[in-house]
Fold this sequence. Notes:
By secondary structure, the protein is α/β, with parallel strands linked by helices. The longest helix has 21 residues, at about 125-145. The protein has helices at about 40-50, 125-145, 160-170, 185-190, 205-210, 230-235, 255-260, 275-285, 305-315; strands at about 1-5, 15-20, 30-40, 65, 70-75, 80, 95, 105-110, 115, 150-155, 175-180, 195-200, 220-225, 235-245, 265-270, 295-300, 320-325. Strands 3, 4, 5, 8, 9, 16 and 17 form a seven-stranded mixed beta sheet that branches. Strands 12-11-10-13-14-15 form a six-stranded parallel beta sheet, sandwiched between helices. About 30% of the residues lie in helices and about 25% in strands. This is Enoyl reductase (ER) domain-containing protein. It comes from Streptomyces malaysiensis. GO terms for molecular function: oxidoreductase activity.
Amino acid sequence: MDAIVIEQFGDAEVLRPGRVPDPPSRSGWTTVRLHTAALNWHDVLVRRGLYASPLPHLPGADGAGTTPDGEPVVILPALFWGAREAAPAPGWELLGDARHGTYAQFVSVPDECLAPRPAGFSWAEAAALSLVGATAFRALVTRAELAAGESVLILGAGGGLAPGATAIAKAIGALPFVTSSSDEKIAVARTHGAVAGVRYTDEDWIDQARAMSPGGDGYDVVLDSVGTWGESLRALRPGGRLVVLGASQAEQATLAARPFYFGQYSLLGTTMGSPADFRGLFRLVAEGRLGAPTIDSTFALSDAADAHRRLESGRAYGKIVLLIA
């Protein structure tokens, strides 16, 4: 089959078209003929070698395609989550880390990691839904228990997660606000449901963010995918919840203990999404409360390197998708 093969870790140039064997058939797994694969920042980290994937390797977590019976499906890339909903089992993994992913004509996944393609979604939109959608659903609904009427500040409006998180917050009746590096991205975020936004490049962005929150007291929830916990806590109202699901800017955070416990804050870690989160996400879609993901651009599978350059440029808003067949 045709695929994008990484022979060594490095910059986007290491993403090269190649030929590899089709995945083998096995009981309890389904081989999906992929039509699209959506990019995530996680793919960049895999390409750089952060997860020490075995080489040669096929990256990619998100995908949509057809089963051998012709059923159109979307792939849930969180494999082997386990029986406990509170956290994944020790042996869980993300598709495209230890085993070949979706930058290929075919991929094999456990049967529980498939869901029907939502009605009315294009192949690109279907591929773009799963990882970001399930991750944002788990962060906001399962972990933060964000409720209708509450406010949430979503850091980084231009990132791959933020548009999906904004849409999910709006779908459940919450009030999403955003931060971004540019007024243009804030304007785009507002057209997709954000109430308002501030530039995090401004020195007083936290004061601005608190001032625009309902009542000016701070947010019920802050969604932090960048690792700036101290700043995020300052944007919360007393008793608010900080949900952490990434570290794109900082790998470590230092918090002052007394302000934290006197503020009655909650600090919640989360990652990816379980099959139950996946089903919850698709219920929102089926009920007509959540529409298709925002697509920034599409590229041919053979142009995966250019797609990664687009992702790393920081200019994209929404998902970047590879067209396979």
